[in-house]
Amino acid sequence: MASEPQGGLTEYIQHHLHHYTVSLGDGDFMKIHVDSLVVSFVLGALFCLWFWLKARKATSGVPSKGQAFVEIIVEFVDTQVKDTFHGDRRTVTPLALSIFMWVVFLNTMDLLPLDAPGWGVKAVAGAEVAHHTFFRWVPTADINTTMGLALAVFFIVLAHGMKAKGVGGFGWELITAPFHADNVAVKIILMPFNLALNVIEYLSKPVSLAMRLFGNMYGGELVFMLIAGLFAGWISFLPGVLFNSVWAIFHILIILLQAFIFMMLTIVYIATAREHH
């Protein structure tokens, strides 16, 4: 969060890779990344407030530009759900919309100036305090955030599977699919292999969701850090702005694409969980 590199590019990047943490006990496992939690909560609240205000002021006549924009987003998400999930969409579409918009909001933080928090602290408390203060405001560049989102999706997928097939039916499918056998003895022999394959399949879903989003956003954030560190002086200010602008324009595609992929995989996982083998 330093407003300018101190001690070279390596120290500058390492400084920006630190989170503002609060320790609840001994060890790294008990540390909470306050910056990721606060930014995620604020952006989630802003998304809810935005859509709530537009829904409250919605009219059946000619919509305003803001209402039309929100309607385009909702229709886009609902179309994706309808094409992928062939069941009752009343709960799936709001879930997909929330995931898409929230991840877009979280990813978009990567487009804000990297050193903006440091500038604020420096203006209030001085450069020394800013240099020793850490704040990363791209929550999806934090593996804890993406894994939390992925685990939430994982439990929602399990709930959909149990609702569609019943707890007993869901458990029976875990040990009898994908390999089937008419012979009882063979069926019993295949049960451990079916269970292992299904457990691996289910556990791989949150891991792939979390790592894909985290890897892309962490890599994008690191590129911004490299550009900011390499072009930090006044002489190289204009080249730095140019390189940052070019990367930011390209990064917009990554921001939207990663949110879309996260949403689509969530829909696919739910649709798959509700299908019977």
The SS-based structural class is mainly alpha
Mean pLDDT: 86
Widest beta sheet: strand line-up: 1-2
| Uncertain segments | 1-6
Principal-axes shape call: globular
How many strands in all?
2
Number of domains as seen in the coordinates? 1
Function: Key component of the proton channel; it plays a direct role in the translocation of protons across the membrane.
Pfam families: ATP-synt_A (PF00119)
InterPro entries: ATP_syn_F0_a_bact/chloroplast, ATP_synth_F0_asu, ATP_synth_F0_asu_AS, F0_ATP_A_sf
Protein name: ATP synthase subunit a
Provide an overview of this structure.
This protein has 277 residues and is an all-alpha fold. The protein has one domain (9-274). The chain has helices spanning 9-16, 34-56, 65-84, 92-108, 116-125, 127-131, 143-176, 184-230, 237-274, and strands at residues 21-23, 31-33. The longest helix is centred in the C-terminal third of the chain and has 47 residues, at 184-230. Residues 1-6 have low confidence and may be disordered.
Short recap of the structure:
This protein has nine helices and two strands, in the order H-E-E-H-H-H-H-H-H-H-H. With 277 residues, the protein is mainly α.
Detail the topology: elements first, then pairings.
Layout: H1 9-16, E1 21-23, E2 31-33, H2 34-56, H3 65-84, H4 92-108, H5 116-125, H6 127-131, H7 143-176, H8 184-230, H9 237-274
Antiparallel strand pairs: 1-2
Provide keyphrases for this structure.
277 residues, mainly alpha, two-stranded antiparallel ribbon, 9 helices, 2 strands, disordered N terminus
